[in-house]
Amino acid sequence: MQVSDFDYELPEELIAQEPLPKRDHSRLLVVEKTTGTYQHRMFPQILNWLQPGDLMVFNDTRVIPARLWGRRTPGGGKVEVLLLTQQHADQWEVLVRPGRKVPPGQTLVFGAAGELTAVATERTPFGGRILRFNRQGADLRAALFKLGEVPLPPYIKTPLHNLDRYQTVYARQEGSVAAPTAGLHFTPDLLAKIKAAGVKTGYLTLHVGLGTFRPVQAETVEDHQMHEEAFQISSDLAQAIAQTKADGHRVIAIGTTSVRALETMAQPDGTVRAGEGRTDIFIYPGYQFKVVDGLVTNFHLPRSTLLMLVSAFAGRELILAAYREAIKERYRFFSFGDAMLII
To answer: pTM score, two decimals?
Structure first.
């Protein structure tokens, strides 16, 4: 299967540069898999496709200020660091630019007064580095939150003045370098209406890292390797999924990150195991879904693993046709864009 099979042309002006004034004012393209049809709605109308007893599964990860600007010492050259995954109390896996200037043994200094330093200890298989900081635990977290900034995707050129708009309203567990953007459309009021309609809600955690947004460099889909991301599924959620399946209702994942966590822990009967760990699951057409019956997702970049996952869920031809329809109807794309419900 060729990566080029998941390409499409997107007018640049359809890339949303900032969030709408209100979260739930986005549009919703409803794609029905069984009929191969789609309908244009506003996001709060998602209630029309939900049934009492359904379970919606959200990713409660919270974006951290994962981008640091530092300098090499000696030398003083500027370095950009993107935190990916915490390895130990004082160590993070990171991406660095320019990477060739940060060999193992290189010391980096952050902050005007040099209050935070780190040493690159080794290279990673994905071209990153392991940094060992001079602080650890809560002390390191405080320094990172003081010196770091939230890293917006590179296709967003407009500064975001209210960083809370790049967090979901239910974000709790710190650790992501990017938001699970399908959840950005939900408001406390809409969540209350969903619960009042008899729809259950549950939460898991998958910290969004390099695996979710790393560009596919391979020409053949099967040759791409995902980067690991940390996740956790509670026993309460596992039990809720088991009950939902036993009662004949649907599990609807909010975002591709929720899909990846659920399918990582999937059992043959459609339930999931509780637990935590790291996943590099890569879902593309041909994958047989075990847990997820419905999906809320944003519109994804061409040739991306996220577009491949969505195509695996609904069929490549249907998804690409839906994308063409969304472009024709001038939907807003990517992180701050509109949403799609696949059911």
So the answer is: 0.96
SS3 197: coil
DSSP secondary structure letter of residue 199: -
Q: Establish if 267 belongs to a structural domain.
A: yes
Compute the distance between CA of residue 121 and CA of residue 133 in angstroms, rounded to an integer: 10
* Dist. CA 79–CA 81, nearest whole Å: 6
The residue whose two tokens read 């290279």 is 123
On whether the CB atoms of residues 124 and 209 are closer than 8 A, the answer is no
How far apart are alpha carbons 237 and 273 in whole angstroms?
A: 9
Residues comprising the chain, all counted: 343
Task: Judge contact between 259 and 309, C-beta under 8 A.
Answer: yes
Same domain flag for 170 and 37: yes
For residue 297, pLDDT beyond 90:
yes
| Residues whose CB is less than 8 angstroms from the CB of residue 336 and which lie 6 or more positions away in sequence, other chains included | 16, 17, 18, 19, 20, 156, 165, 181, 184
**Tokens at residue 244, please?**
């939902």
Residues 180 and 45 grouped into a single domain: yes
Identify whether residues 274 and 332 lie together within a single domain.
yes
Predicted pLDDT of residue 214: 74
Angle at the Cα of 257 from the Cα atoms of 310 and 223, rounded to 5 degrees: 60
pLDDT tens digit string along 44-91? Answer: 999 999 999 999 999 999 999 999 999 999 988 999 999 999 999 999
Strands 107-110 and 116-123: antiparallel
Burial 73-99 (b: 16+ CB within 10 A, else e): eeeeeebebbbbbbeeebbbbbbbeee
Q: For the ranges 36-45, 110-119, 207-216, 274-283, which has the lowest average pLDDT?
A: 207-216
Picking from 147, 179, 212, the residue at the C-terminal end of a domain is 147
261 within 8 A of 302, measured Cβ to Cβ: no
What Rg value do the Cα atoms of the chain yield, rounded?
Answer: 20
Count of domains observed in the chain: 2
